[in-house]
């Protein structure tokens, strides 16, 4: 086993005292889920807790979680980069994930994604310059009966999405605090989890502009013309 | 016949009172008076097949776990519902969490597990999982969990854990890895999870789907034989929750006898196709099952019939497509999913799914040639049976079948 983080320099907590309190409470509960000799199994839960406080997982947060669980930094990184819900850079304070799996796709999810792109001026995987919104195309949310579906701020389901309901949602979100987001680098870089070749060609314009977007989506649309 | 969904139309169907008013928590005391082995025998007789996708006989799985002599034993519930098209477990957890909880306690008693884990997908945390946690807390207060449950001497504690967005963690050994706090790489089998060395923390482990366990109260109440007779096809007992989506009038989760035909499911439950639509194709059991055509809609939807027809009943996710869908575009969508979700452990899958996805994107962009379509089929064939888990097979099956059954849709998009 690789020498543990705890043997090196002291690891600083990335949290404010208030955040620390909430993290510690959740951490104790998560560790108690497992037999005492298996406390390292709480790694996924601990990373979720850190992300709840910071919005994403900066390097010091990963180091700190590893330190608390006696898990080598490399294994923390391995887990944080494997699972798509862990964010490796900041996202907007309101994160909209639109499902584009097959059931949502046949019910017009690409139209919804296009609508988001037009309204927000960003492509999936990007964040608006003001840090308010980010957009992502996500995989099946298990809400196929009320397709198209979307997931707001990681955990809230929105179902039977239409362009109109989406506009209302965006309007509503603007007035809400949304996710806490610790400062971090380059918010407009595409999400590293996102390897979508279709998005290389077209570029959206600014947050108010008219993006000249013709994506492969249009060719693949299954909606019937009126 | 409604064994699982009887409460779903009632207000507050998820509440303990609602569940008890309709006869809930009557099976548990009955089960705790039986010997664990007797319960397993009833489940064997019930011909209950695992509802997660593989359709493995649940009674047989539990028999394997019971034969092991290594303790402790675990029962782990797979609530990582992620197969595109599937949404039945989420509905169970939202609408009848207590039905599942009662089944969970019965299942744990049957395999002599004293600590169970329910692995929910991370996205469920504030919705379905919250409702489940409430139900578990209520069940603790009623004495259905904890020490000496209902005076039987049986102890059980339940823990909910959650993932972080990885389709592969629905594969049972990847899920065990994830519960143990690692990335979700499926394990090489054998040893299988039911065997010592293969399960959670290397202990014998029964891995069951949410819906599978929700069937325990009806099996105990009716008896295995009666339950089995509800199924329309031999060796496929009970009812099944069909999660129907696509171009139907009324999409949703429908409980129907196991083995109902896709035509009957569409017409009798979903109100037929939406206005102006004619049926073109059906995904019979989640995105990783082979597609079937409108002419094949009369097929029974049970595990054995569909296996013989070279597709699968899978997770019970049925997607109906109408004439507006070009199947090449549909396959390109499905393949983008698999390319994204391949965990990267095995080369044929990591490279194969990405390669298929690139070729299909090229085809649907109008830049493909006939040879590309042939290549998709060829690559898919070479991915089968070569990897640790079934994700590659689940990507190859649609790739092959969409082309074999809807070649014209592909040819219309490519040059000579």
Structural overview:
The complex is a heterodimer of chains A (226) and B (416). In chain A, 37% of the residues lie in helices and 8% in strands. Chain A has 226 residues and is of the alpha+beta class. Chain A has 2 domains: 71 residues, Arc Repressor Mutant, subunit A, CATH 1.10.10; 123 residues, Glutaredoxin (3-Layer(aba) Sandwich), CATH 3.40.30.10. The C terminus of chain A is likely disordered. In chain A, helix 2 packs antiparallel against helix 3 and helix 3 packs across helix 4. The N and C termini of chain A lie far apart (63 Å). Chain A is elongated and about 50 Å long. Chain B is of the alpha/beta class. Chain B folds into 3 domains: 215 residues, Rossmann fold (3-Layer(aba) Sandwich); 84 residues, Ubiquitin-like (UB roll) (Roll), CATH 3.10.20; 85 residues, NADH-ubiquinone oxidoreductase 51kDa subunit, iron-sulphur binding domain (de novo design (two linked rop proteins), Up-down Bundle), CATH 1.20.1440. Helices cover 43% and strands 13% of the residues of chain B. Chain B has 18 helices and 9 strands. In chain B, strands 6-5-9-7-8 form a 5-stranded mixed β-sheet, with helices on both faces. Chain B has a 4-stranded parallel β-sheet with strand order 3-2-1-4, with helices on both faces. In chain B, helix 7 links the parallel strand 2 and strand 3. In chain B, helix 3 packs across helix 6, helix 3 runs parallel beside helix 11 and helix 14 packs antiparallel against helix 15. Chains A and B meet through helix 2, helix 4, helix 5 and helix 8 of A and helix 5, strand 3, strand 5, strand 9 and helix 14 of B.
